[in-house]
Design a protein that fits this description.
The complex is a heterodimer of chains A (274) and B (289). Chain A is 80% helix and 0% strand. Chain A is mainly α and 274 residues long. Chain A has a single domain, classed as Orthogonal Bundle (MetI-like fold), CATH 1.10.3720.10. In chain A, helix 4 packs parallel to helix 7, helix 4 crosses helix 10 and helix 9 runs antiparallel to helix 11. The N and C termini of chain A lie far apart (64 Å). Helices cover 32% and strands 22% of the residues of chain B. Chain B has helices spanning 59-66, 90-98, 115-120, 140-152, 168-180, 198-215, 226-231, 255-262, 266-269, 277-284; strands spanning 18-28, 34-44, 48-52, 74-79, 82-84, 100-103, 186-190, 218-223, 235-240, 243-249. In chain B, the strands form two sheets. In chain B, strands 6-7-8-3-9-10 form a six-stranded mixed beta sheet, sandwiched between helices. In chain B, helix 5 packs parallel to helix 6 (198-215) and helix 8 (255-262) crosses helix 10. The radius of gyration of chain B is 19 Å and the shape is globular. The chains are: A mainly alpha (274), B alpha/beta (289). Chain A binds chain B through residues 176, 178-179, 181-183, 185-189, 191-192, 195-197, 200-201, 203, and chain B through 69, 93-94, 97-98, 100-102, 104, 106-113, 117, 121-122, 124-126, 129-130, 132-134, 175, 182. Chain B: Residues 20-266 form the ABC transporter domain. Chain B: GO terms for molecular function: ATP binding. Chain B: Belongs to the ABC transporter superfamily.
């Protein structure tokens, strides 16, 4: 009994811990600022319910004009060639991008790069490639190289370096050091250590990242045509510009099929190379 | 036994084909911690030398200093004809590496490469060796040499297997083959059997010892296993408290000497005073445990 009262007194003196962790003044201020910015933004850019309600009949009308999708053989043949061009842009752009990402990733990797502190330069380049959206790169290449698939391919190359360069560098940094040390000890140079020890060790990660890059490139390449960089997107833009909505629905279905097939394919390949 | 600081260096003129020679070698870490000091060593060609000491005695550091992989902080080193203090020049280091085979406690194999590729990679660092990073593009004679080296460690039938599919003992045998393919004059092995079970460890040490003798390679290995030190060497050098505690032909090493290095007197309490260590170990089995 006495023991129970002692325990109870001890609990009172210690007090119950708070249900929620305490928040610092700085965190509280940031939270309030974030909330205010969000609420102000909702008022300016979020769709009003009445606007959504007014748009619904127009959407239904548009969908009605899109059906049934155009299955005219001449149109399907033209669309087929555009799909082939889209896949070519994605494939060629990804392969060149992956190849260029290998040296870029190596030069940017901490502890491996021969550039020492200057490895920040390739890192900055990769960041630039990654942070500028692909449509902006497409606009730049259309301006410099002209309309067409070449601009699209260059866009995918740059986009892939931005994506793979970072992942390749991180994978190389995490490669097993023991084989590298063993080869350095016998006098192997940096390039042969890269080819003989680092790349074989990180190959599953490289393949995985490359397949993600290919999947991403296919998704990108279907919209690059909207700014004139070739591929099926160009056909989609023409269809909307000329109010050929049945053509547009056929192209949208084709894009859906391409992306779906590519995802299934890359998923299976990734599983194989794990 | 020779007490610390009373090592009698062998005069250079009586040593045939000296491979390693140090005078007053010392190593202190940047934080001021001394690893060893005043080390005099003379190792001649074809010797098999066990470098022993308890954990942290500085065996591996000494080994790396001897071959220029770590800079020393004082004294003189002459290894395979290259004389240097602190660290060798880049040209000296290149020449040294060409004549030395390395085997590490962790074999350092590339797990996702084939056994044959790992052995061919032993040629890296030699002149014109850039193609040796993969057996598929390596010179034909190097592939044949690699197969020969694998046959010598009895692993030729696993040449096509991936290195990460090998057992610890097999991986260490591949590491030995990788060192052998360099046709080294000096083989350096840092605790080559430390991570293996006793039976496999003995097998690895036997292969090491036999191949070194057969090819006329000077073998210097570190170990904290008394049996490995006594059974596979011609000479034992013991480090204790940063000094060469003794440096003796293996046959002259006494159980008490080993005991002082490893067990701080426990063996002496059991009344095994001055019998040769190898004999004592074989008779009583105490050192084999």
């Amino acid at each position: 009994m006495r023991s129970a009262s002692v325990h109870s007194a001890s609990m009172r003196s210690a007090g119950l811990p708070p249900r929620l962790p305490s928040i610092s003044p700085v965190s509280f201020t940031l939270l309030v600022v974030f909330g205010a910015v969000f609420l102000a933004s909702v008022g300016q850019v979020a769709p009003a319910p009445e606007k959504l309600a007014a748009g619904a009949p127009r959407m239904a009308e548009l969908v009605g004009r899109m059906l049934p999708p155009n299955t005219d053989p001449g149109f399907l043949q033209r669309m087929g060639w555009r799909i082939v061009e889209t896949l070519q842009i994605a494939l060629v752009g990804t392969v060149f991008g992956v190849i260029l990402s290998l040296p870029v990733g190596w030069l940017a990797a901490r502890g491996i790069s021969p550039l020492g502190v200057f490895r920040q330069l390739p890192r900055a380049l990769v960041s630039l490639f990654r942070t500028v959206p692909d449509l902006v790169w497409a606009l730049l290449f259309v301006s410099t190289l002209g309309l067409g698939a070449v601009a699209g391919t260059m866009t995918i190359v740059v986009d892939t370096i931005g994506f793979c360069g970072r992942f390749f560098a991180e994978a190389m940094e995490e490669a097993d050091m023991k084989p590298q040390e063993a080869l350095h000890a016998i006098g192997a140079n940096r390039v042969t250590v890269l080819c003989g020890a680092i790349l074989p060790d990180v190959m599953p990660t490289l393949i995985n990242s490359s397949l993600f890059a290919l999947e991403k490139a296919v998704r990108s390449s279907v919209v690059l045509g909207l700014v004139g960089a070739g591929g099926i997107g160009q056909e989609l833009k023409v269809a909307f510009d000329l109010f050929q909505y049945r053509n547009a629905s056929a192209i949208i279905l084709a894009i859906f099929a391409i992306v779906l097939v590519m995802e299934l394919l890359t998923d299976r390949l990734r599983a194989k190379f794990q | 036994m020779q007490p610390a600081g009373m090592v009698q260096p062998i005069p250079a003129q009586v040593i045939p084909a000296q491979v390693i020679r140090t005078r007053g070698l010392s190593k202190t870490y940047p934080n001021g911690q001394a690893v060893f000091a005043g080390v005099h060593l003379d190792i001649s060609a074809d010797q098999r030398v066990a470098l022993i000491g308890s954990n942290g005695a500085g065996k591996s550091t000494l080994l790396k200093c001897l071959i220029g992989l770590l800079p020393s902080t004082g004294g003189e080193i002459m290894t395979l004809g290259e004389s240097f203090s602190t660290a060798p020049s880049p040209a000296q280091l290149r020449r040294l590496r060409r004549q030395i085979g390395f085997v590490f406690q962790n074999h350092g194999l590339v797990g996702r490469q084939s056994v044959l590729t790992n052995v061919v990679q032993g040629k890296l660092g030699l002149p014109g060796s850039w193609r040796a990073f993969h057996h598929a593009i390596a010179r034909r004679e190097w592939r044949e040499e690699a197969m020969q080296a694998l046959a010598e460690v009895r692993l030729a039938e696993r040449a096509g297997a991936r290195a990460d599919q090998l057992s610890g003992g097999q991986a260490q045998r591949v590491a030995i083959a990788r060192a052998l393919i360099r046709r080294p004059k000096l083989m350096i092995a840092d605790e080559p059997a430390a991570s293996l079970d006793p039976a496999v460890g003995r097998e690895i040490m036997t292969i090491f010892s036999d191949l070194a003798r057969e090819h006329g390679i000077t073998l210097v290995y570190t170990t904290h296993d008394m049996k490995h030190a006594l059974d596979y060497s011609d000479r034992v050098i013991a480090l204790r408290a940063g000094q060469v505690h003794f440096d003796l032909p293996t046959a002259q090493v006494r159980a008490r000497d080993m005991d002082e290095v490893f067990t701080h007197g426990a063996f002496a309490d059991e009344g095994a005073p001055d019998i040769p260590a190898a004999q004592g170990a074989n008779a009583g089995g105490l050192l084999h445990a």
